[in-house]
Specification:
heterodimer, A: 854 residues, alpha+beta, Rhopdopsin 7-helix transmembrane proteins, Beta-Lactamase, 5 domains, 30 helices, 13 strands, elongated, disordered C terminus, B: alpha/beta, 5-stranded antiparallel sheet
Chain lengths: 854, 543
């Protein structure tokens, strides 16, 4: 086989290879189609020539004409390709040249006028093909030249001053240049025997191929597909079989002295082996280029899938996912955004720990909308070309810029976008390989379900560990954490501070549980924002907070706790708090290893310190010591503060009595009725004691009311009534100065609230009125009904009961009224009554609502 | 990446999708973009001092709250902050301030701040318009780096002055004459120079106000005959082209037209009264102009496509609201009435609407009545394969008479002219009308004071001259109309004394001062003819 034949075979293989490659590409693109047409024409040219020289059937002249058709159409093919490449619409000339050259071919087919049939001279085995050209050949050349000139003009027009178009066409120019040079050089005798025309044709084809690649009309990976390796082996094998079947058969027959049949079988066998070997070689080469890498990637992906299947730790999944991506691709930096409960996507993981995490993608971001419809990566440039990109906010555009974002990869499981991986550009001008991006996407897809499950699990865990109202750690997790921290701080210090809100039950009763909840949330917010990240805050009881302070000694723990207590006491002032809204805290501190040898002991000691504060007047910070332990062992149950303040109360009520002596007797009566009703209603002893003491003190605020109003013998004017109503708040203000009695405040404050919400001062209704307040209201009113006044006689029992029943559900709690009436009827409660010299009706005579004493 | 670099990087289809993909948005997708960008604008505008000057302490968070809390605004609402250019009070940092005349305003000009984001969007939408103006079907366009643009635009600080700068950011078009020279030339010089260079280099794009385009196009033949030597260069190619054009003109026995010398790829017109000039422009250039909607306050907000079936709004320039015609009329009758608006996806085909817009990207104007009236001519187009509304520009709101996109005359400006001229005009009504050759003009129906007729010499010509002087004095644009386009669009009809009173008596209310309905004008003329108390004869004259 001559060098000419070898070059031809290689050229044909190359052409077929390119053709097959593009059969897999988008054939709808005009440029691709025109390129394939051009390659097919070149195949006709070279193939025709090669098969003619190989003297294949049907005849030498058939292949000669095929080759001539290729030659005549090559300029037209080039013309079409260039027009498509330039997106030029000069279709009239395009078709003109096609038909013109076809006409030339047909003319030549019948006359041989331009390229005559070659004279075949078979001389000692070697066959020669002699062409006897006439001057007509130059007509053909001129026609081809005209076509090329017109094409050159079109290119010139298109590129005039257009640097970009020129740059795009540069590979085409080079290809064309090499093609022309090759053909000119082939006509020189110096190069005789070297098929420069064919070589230049192949080089030209690859230049065109490169131009298409630069124009991004296909992916280079198309070249290395599995089907291509098989096709390439078969094409090569077939061409070799056609070319070498006869010589090999003859050689075998001569060399081995074999029969014709045996020689044929042997030759076929050899060719089959050759094709198989070629396939093996191509497969190996392609494997080396693509498949080996793919296999490695597959293995890694399988390992990852196995590893994360039962994993519920989000951090570990993220770590595994990003490590795998880093291992099998060239991607190094990543930011992983995960969906939060509010729908936004926040950075949860960065491959570089120094990367900031304070970024998020809004739930309505167009990128999220894009990924909901496309489960495929998108680079920022492509994304910026979508119409939905136009809805991006300027700040979001700035974020993409500041993060130097290059590509986004979705993490989608069953159509649910769980997260987004962002790949920042490594350096300006560098881009990620598309193969890497798609591999990373495959890894993300593998992890997507696990990520979703882990997110849900983490959320569930977080919910289980958090207090719903305040968002702080709850009691259960607090003890786990305290144990863990105790172990961690074995060689250093660990302080624990417990903060117990004072009188919070009353706070809730006075201001309602909603206000109480708000106060708790504010305190929680204050505590969380005032402490270092290493510290933990927990809500371990209704009104109790715990602060774990790892690494803090007693001194610093006390400083911090004192500051926090001071801050808490100002919390409601800043929010426009009202009477009695100041919250105080009893805090206890304990620290290890100084005062505790276990987490349990640490906690108990802190609790003891808190209890000590509570016992000694509340609103203070106490550090645990062995002395206070002794004091706490002396603890009792409820102890009334009334006795210790009895003299003060007596003095105050005596002062009121001097102004309105009816009040003192009245208070005692009310105390009797309230205590009796409390007991009948099943109140605990300590609560019965509280309601009794509240009854004794309920009118103490009248000390601040002007005497002329207090003793007015007629109906009060609205203004006077407003002043009179102030006695409730006055009472609260007085009692506030007797800290050991402040537990009666809610009862006193609510004894003029009516069950239907028409009372004062806070117009509470139903069960939002403290129970003891409702009891006091009935007791207070009953005494007013059954006492004699200057303008009325005392009602008898039946009338009083009637009045009570009439006020049931309006002024009085219906359940309590029933109990009270029952007690009255059974004689368990007797009427005390009272006579008075100076009694005035405050509301007029309209019982029962107004029977209550003011 | 500049637009011209995209030729190298992306396919034609990709570039089309990027710039003209909005045409294929669904209604929902379009509104998603609108509402999302409005949400951004609310977060910028509402807390700004400018926003608060209108919101008076309110703070809208959602689109619905924004529409209910922000009243419809006019330039008066912004003047106190914008005219002194109080940058710190604005929702966004302005990069440039654009200026225009304030028709009937308390100041002669009004200014509008442009932020970086606004300019970026403007630039993108201008490129979309450039692509669409060369397109002959979907996805097919023909924009080249080597193209030339005939410069017929007002320079900065007018909004058209931004176009060369924005285009420069994207593509190396050559302006004829170059922008740096053009800004120092008179209008006439610029045209001569532009055509002279165009004959040598070719002209691929031409854009401007419809009336200006027409005037410039018509001036070509005069340039040719007046200064032929200066136009014809020694270039053989130019000579050949001119000779061929002249031969064609002689054969067809007509004057030289631009289409004989140039083959435009893109022909863009903006402004009012384009429909009066479109047919003539097409005849002159052989290309139907493509209409765009643009203005000082809103930037470029809409563009026609290859089918010329109506203008499509860009989704990212402004948030669009529309006052339906009946609401608009209620508001004309009772200026204190707050008209209701509908959104872009709520318009109905055939409906006439006044445009209300909120500029995105840190723009100053919110729920701003820009003063333009549109008709929705259809929703969805088979030809263009989309499903979104398309609009046709009708005119300015009836309270404003806009002549050829050049001048905007209001009731206030007419009253000022009447007052300054000291003409004894008792009352008047003004209407924008169109001549037989479809050119707009201001038709003023005036009634003189009966007493003055005895001792004053008042002809139509005197009235026209006097009023014309003061219109020119009050309004630079009116002056330019005369100076640049050479037209005086004032026609006066004098009606008999007592005609307006007779009209009022007959119909129970006085005739609207600005742009009354044509039937009302007819009624006035009937009253004029029937009214026997007048002393003057009805007369009208073209001035």
């Amino acid at each position: 086989m001559t060098g000419y034949s070898w070059v031809s075979v290689i050229a044909l293989v190359c052409y077929l290879f390119l053709l097959l490659t593009f059969f897999q590409a988008s054939k709808t693109d005009k440029v691709i189609r025109s390129f394939m047409t051009l390659i097919a024409i070149m195949f006709l040219w070279v193939g025709g020539s090669f098969f003619m020289r190989s003297e294949l059937g049907p005849s030498v002249y058939f292949w000669h004409h095929v080759s001539v058709l290729g030659i005549m159409l090559v300029a037209v093919g080039y013309y079409h390709f260039a027009l498509a490449f330039l997106e030029d619409k000069n279709s009239h000339n395009k078709w003109f040249w096609l038909f013109f050259h076809l006409a030339l071919f047909i003319a030549n087919l019948f006359t041989g006028i331009f390229i005559p049939k070659p004279v075949v001279i078979r001389d000692t085995g070697a066959t020669q093909f002699i062409y006897n050209y006439t001057w007509h050949f130059y007509i053909l050349l001129a026609c081809l030249l005209l076509c090329v000139l017109q094409l050159a003009f079109i290119i010139y027009r298109h590129c005039k001053g257009n640097v970009i178009a020129f740059r795009q066409l540069r590979p085409v120019f080079y290809g064309l240049g090499i093609l022309i040079i090759g053909h000119i050089a082939a006509s020189f005798s110096v190069f005789s025997g070297i098929p420069l025309d064919i070589i230049s044709g192949v080089i030209n084809a690859f230049f065109l191929f490169y131009a298409l690649y630069k124009k991004r009309l296909f992916k280079i990976s198309l070249l290395f597909s599995r089907s291509n390796s098989l096709a390439l082996a078969m094409i090569t094998g077939t061409i070799l079989a056609i070319r070498f079947f006869s010589p090999v058969r003859s050689a075998l027959r001569n060399g081995l002295n074999a029969s014709l049949t045996a020689a044929v079988i042997l030759t076929v066998l050899l060719l089959v082996i050759l094709v198989a070997a070629l396939f093996l070689i191509f497969s190996q080469i392609f494997n080396y280029i693509v498949v080996r890498k793919e296999k490695r990637q597959e293995n890694r992906k399988n390992q990852l899938a196995e590893k994360i299947t039962y994993m519920l730790d989000l951090d570990s999944i993220m770590q595994n996912m990003t490590n795998t991506i880093r291992d099998i691709t060239h991607i190094d930096r990543m930011l992983v955004f995960l969906r939060q409960t509010d729908g936004d996507y926040r950075v949860e993981y960065t491959s570089n720990p120094l990367d900031e995490k304070n970024y998020y993608i809004r739930a309505d971001h167009p990128l999220v909308a894009y990924f909901k419809n496309h489960d495929a990566p998108i680079n920022v440039q492509d994304f910026s070309k979508t119409t939905m990109f136009r809805s991006l906010w300027e700040t979001e555009k700035q974020l993409l810029k500041s993060l130097n974002a290059d590509c986004f990869i979705p993490i989608i499981t069953v159509g649910d976008l769980v997260g987004i991986i962002m790949l920042p550009r490594e350096k300006e001008g560098s881009y990620y390989r598309s193969a890497d991006i798609y591999t990373a996407h495959a890894v993300a897809s593998i992890c997507s379900a696990s990520v979703k499950d882990a997110c849900a699990y983490e959320r569930a865990i977080e919910d289980a560990r958090r207090d719903k109202l305040t968002g702080l750690i709850n009691r259960k997790y607090f003890f786990e954490l305290l144990d863990a921290e105790f172990k961690k701080c074995k060689d250093s210090t660990l302080s624990l501070s417990l903060l117990n809100l004072d009188n919070f039950r009353q706070y809730n009763q006075v201001y309602g549980t909603q206000e109480g909840d708000i106060a708790l949330q504010r305190i929680a917010g204050l505590l969380s924002s005032s402490l270092s990240e290493a510290s933990s805050v927990a809500r371990i009881g209704g009104k109790e907070f715990a602060i774990i302070l790892p690494g803090y000694d007693i001194h610093f723990a006390k400083l911090i706790t004192e500051n926090l207590v001071a801050e808490i006491s100002h919390i409601n002032e800043r929010s426009g708090g009202h009477i009695g809204s100041r919250i105080t805290v009893s805090a206890g501190i304990s620290a290890a290893p100084y005062m505790a040898s276990s987490a349990r002991e640490l906690f108990q000691n802190a609790e003891t310190a808190v209890y000590t504060v509570k016992r000694s007047g509340k609103n203070a910070v106490q550090i645990y010591s062995s002395d206070i332990l002794y004091q706490t062992t002396q603890q009792e149950g409820f102890s009334s503060g009334y006795k210790e303040n009895a003299s003060t109360i007596y003095a105050l009520t005596a002062a009121i009595d001097a102004k309105d002596h009816y009040t003192f007797r009245h208070s005692q009566n009310v105390a009797y009725y309230a205590e009796a009703l409390g007991k009948a209603a099943g109140l605990a002893n300590d609560l019965t004691e509280i309601v009794k003491e509240a009854a004794l003190l309920h009118d103490i605020g009248k000390i601040g009311i002007r005497e002329d109003i207090l003793n007015k013998p007629g109906r009060l004017t609205p203004d006077e009534f407003d002043i009179m109503k102030g006695h409730v708040e006055n009472a609260v203000n007085i009692i506030r100065h007797l800290p050991s009695l402040n537990y009666v405040i809610p009862t006193v404050l609510s004894h003029h609230e009516h069950f239907d919400g028409s009372g004062y001062p806070r117009r509470l209704s139903g069960e939002s009125i403290p129970l003891m307040g409702r009891i006091l209201c009935i007791a207070d009113s009953f005494d007013a009904m059954t006492s004699e006044r200057s303008y009325k006689k005392a009602l008898d029992l039946n009338s009083a009961i009637e009045n009570l029943m009439a006020g049931s559900g309006k002024q009085f709690d219906p359940k309590l009224v029933l109990i009270f009436v029952e007690q009255l009827k059974s004689g368990s409660i007797r009427i005390l009554g009272q006579s008075s010299e100076s009694i005035h009706p405050l509301f007029g005579e309209d019982y029962p609502e107004n029977t209550q004493d003011e | 990446m500049r637009f011209q670099e995209k030729f190298h990087e992306y396919s034609k289809q990709e570039i089309w999708e990027e710039y003209c993909g909005f045409l294929n948005l669904s209604m929902d997708e379009f509104m998603t973009i609108q509402k999302r960008l409005l949400q951004e604008q609310i977060s910028l505008w509402a807390p700004s001092a400018l926003g608060q000057s209108i919101l008076k302490g309110k703070m809208p968070q959602t689109v619905d709250e924004f529409r209910s809390m922000v009243p419809l605004t006019t330039y008066e609402d912004y003047a106190a902050i914008l005219l002194p250019k109080q940058t710190k009070s604005l929702p966004g940092e302005p990069v440039v301030w654009i200026q225009t005349t304030w028709e009937g305003g308390i100041h002669p000009i009004k200014v509008a701040p442009y932020t970086k984001g606004m300019l970026d969007t403007f630039q993108h939408n201008i490129m979309s318009s450039m692509i669409l103006c060369t397109s002959r079907k979907k996805g097919e366009y023909n924009v080249n780096v080597t193209d030339h643009v005939l410069y017929a635009l007002a320079p900065l600080p007018y909004v058209t002055g931004l176009l060369p700068l924005l285009l420069k950011n994207e593509i190396d078009f050559e302006f004829l004459p170059p922008v740096k020279d053009a800004v120092n030339m008179s209008f006439k010089e610029r045209n001569i120079q532009g055509f002279k260079l165009g004959i040598n280099k070719g002209i691929e794009y031409f854009f401007g106000l419809g009336s200006v385009l027409y005037y410039v196009s018509k001036s070509l033949s005069s340039i040719k005959s007046g200064s032929r030597k200066s136009i014809i260069t020694k270039s053989p190619r130019t000579l050949l082209r001119l000779l061929a054009a002249r031969r064609r003109c002689r054969r067809e026995n007509r004057e030289l037209m631009p289409k004989d010398l140039f083959h435009l790829k893109g022909f863009v017109c903006a402004g009012t009264d384009n429909r009066c000039y479109k047919a003539d422009l097409e005849k002159l250039w052989g290309v139907e102009p493509l209409e765009i909607f643009a203005g000082t306050e809103p930037t470029c907000i809409g563009c026609e496509t290859w089918s010329r079936e109506g203008v499509y709004f860009f989704p990212d320039a402004c948030f669009y609201e529309f006052i339906p015609e009946d609401e608009m009329n209620k508001n004309i009758e009772d200026p204190s009435y707050q008209p209701h608006t509908v959104l872009w996806d709520e318009v109905v085909p055939g409906g006439i609407y006044e445009l209300v817009l909120t500029v995105f990207k840190g723009g100053a104007f919110a729920r701003y009545r820009v003063g333009d009236v549109f008709r929705c001519i259809g929703i969805g187009s088979k030809k263009e394969g989309n499903s979104i509304p398309r609009f046709e520009y009708i005119d300015r709101v009836p309270q404003i008479i806009d002549i050829a996109g050049f001048t905007r005359i209001t009731e206030k400006s007419i009253e000022q002219a009447v007052e300054l001229s000291r003409l004894p005009i008792e009352t008047w009504t003004a209407k924008k009308e169109f001549s037989k050759d479809n050119r707009p003009y201001l038709h003023l129906y005036v009634e003189l004071k009966r007493d003055s007729l005895i001792d004053s010499a008042l002809s139509i010509r005197i009235l026209q001259e006097q009023l014309g002087i003061y219109f020119r004095y009050l309004d630079q644009d009116y002056e330019d109309l005369k100076k640049i386009l050479g037209i005086d669009p004032l026609k006066i009809t004098m009606v008999k004394c007592g005609t307006f009173a007779a009209y009022e008596k007959k119909f129970g209310s006085s005739i609207r001062k600005m742009n009354p309905e044509s039937c009302d004008i007819n009624d006035l003329i009937i009253c004029h003819a029937a009214n026997g108390t007048g002393t003057g004869g009805a007369s009208d004259d073209w001035i």
